[in-house]
Amino acid sequence: MIQAKSHESSRGKQKAILVGVSLKQKPLWEIEELLDELSGLARTLDYSECGRVIQSKGRINPSHFIGKGKLEEIMSVKEECGSDLVLFDEDLSPAQCRNLEKTLECTVVDRCGLILEIFNRHARTREAKTQVQLARLKYLLPRLAGRWSHLHRQKGGIGLREAGEKQLEIDRRLVRNDIYKLESKLKSIEKERATQRKARDELFKASLVGYTNVGKSTLMNRLTQSNLFVEDRLFATLDASTRTLKEVAGSKILLTDTVGFIDKLPHSLVASFKATLDEVRMADLLIRMVDLSHPNFEAQMASTSRVIGELGAGDKPHFWVFNKIDSVSSPSLVENTANRFPGSVFISATDGSGCEDLKQRIIEGYEERMVERELVLGYKERGLLRQIRLYGRILSEKYTEEGIHVMFLLEKKRLGLIKKLQDS
């Protein structure tokens, strides 16, 4: 199936042909949705979609991933729109990518390579840059052979084949050395993060998780009065940022913004972003955000749940937050979704609608883990009140000749802290 597209606003941009393949007889609309997302990824890199080719196959072609007929269709679209880039919504082997580029005589990029390039352009901090660079090198290593294949094909030169093989081995060794250095650097960064987490281990931590571009950073700024970078594009945030939830009386709650998820997230990125994604594993509460205005929001919810499960955080306490209600055209959608997902919160992070309800819901999630206790503290133990205020909520305190009578709420797992402080 061929679809050629014309974009008047895309002049000057690199044109790309999108290729989708159904290996399990998926319906056409599902493949189109996946290609719509691939098109969004392409736009993030300022590529302009000029056509689509879709193939349904029972199995992949080992050499080119797709069949000869579809290759001819891609060539036809390529000639029609003048494209020099083909994007596959699948991961290609290094050999398949080389064969495709040779046959199509243009650049071929798979889904993993496209996402890696987006991450590379958006990385800002030392940690993000290190993580992305490591993932890119691991992606590059098995693809180095194609860089020197031209020397293998040349004839008449003395030792050209050997020269290509020697250069290939040199490149592989250099890349492996760089990978080792980056892995060592990330281990050091992980230690720093572990130290930071340990310092706030006794505090209640909630993490914003969800598909990329659902509004997590915008919500983070509103709830914590921060000024994190926000932009309407995929993967604008690559770093985990932790701030204090503002205007919460009697307790300190930490809120963390995390890197967005996406379907078919490359394994190399998951591995490289381990330190960042650990914030999800270490959270006491997961706030699973959804863009209700997105036509495929339920599929994104399923992807979010799947990734959270893969991270080993599927059993964490959580609730759904449906964002961008100000962009929903049908009021009945909010009502129907609320009926289908009871206990969810509906907000607009942009104009603040529902955000106070969300804040109260986070506080309730915090207090659900707390128990009520009463203590009589000697005046020399007054420092304990500061600890209780830090980790819990004081309900009442009364000063008498006997001491300080205090009633408070504290998480069960923190009760040992008070005993430890009293015994010290």
What global shape is seen? Answer: elongated
Number of E-type strands = 14
Weakly predicted, low-confidence segments: 6-11, 148-161
CATH topology of the largest domain: Rossmann fold
In N-to-C order, the SSE pattern is: EEHEHEHEHHHHEHEEHHEHEHEHEHEEH
Helix content: 40-55%
Task: Return the average pLDDT rounded to an integer.
Answer: 82
What is the rounded Rg? 27 Å
Q: How large is the count of helical segments?
A: 15
How far the N terminus sits from the C terminus, by CA atoms, comes to 74 Å
Structural class: alpha/beta
CATH class of the largest domain: Alpha Beta
The fourth-level CATH homologous superfamily of the largest domain is P-loop containing nucleotide triphosphate hydrolases
Strand content: 15-25%
CATH architecture type of the largest domain: 3-Layer(aba) Sandwich
The main pleated sheet reads as:
6 strands, mixed
Order of strands across the main sheet: 7-8-6-9-10-11
Question: What are the salient characteristics of this protein?
Answer:
Rossmann fold, 45% helix, alpha/beta, 6-stranded mixed β-sheet, 5-stranded mixed β-sheet, 424 residues
Task: Kindly describe this structure.
This protein has 424 residues and is α/β, with parallel strands linked by helices. The chain is built from 15 helices and 14 strands. Residues 6-11 and 148-161 have low confidence and may be disordered. The protein has a six-stranded mixed beta sheet with strand order 7-8-6-9-10-11, sandwiched between helices. Strands 1-3-2-4-5 form a five-stranded mixed beta sheet, sandwiched between helices. The protein has helices at 28-44, 68-81, 94-104, 111-122, 126-140, 149-153, 160-199, 216-224, 267-272, 274-281, 297-310, 331-340, 355-367, 383-391, 415-423; strands at 2-4, 14-22, 47-56, 85-88, 107-109, 204-210, 241-244, 253-257, 285-291, 318-323, 345-346, 370-377, 392-399, 404-411. 45% of the residues lie in helices and 20% in strands. It is elongated. Helix 1 (28-44) packs parallel to helix 4 and helix 5 packs antiparallel against helix 7 (160-199). The N and C termini lie far apart (74 Å). It folds into four domains: 2-109, Rossmann fold (3-Layer(aba) Sandwich), CATH 3.40.50.11060; 122-195; 196-367, Rossmann fold; 370-423, Alpha-Beta Plaits (2-Layer Sandwich), CATH 3.30.70.240.
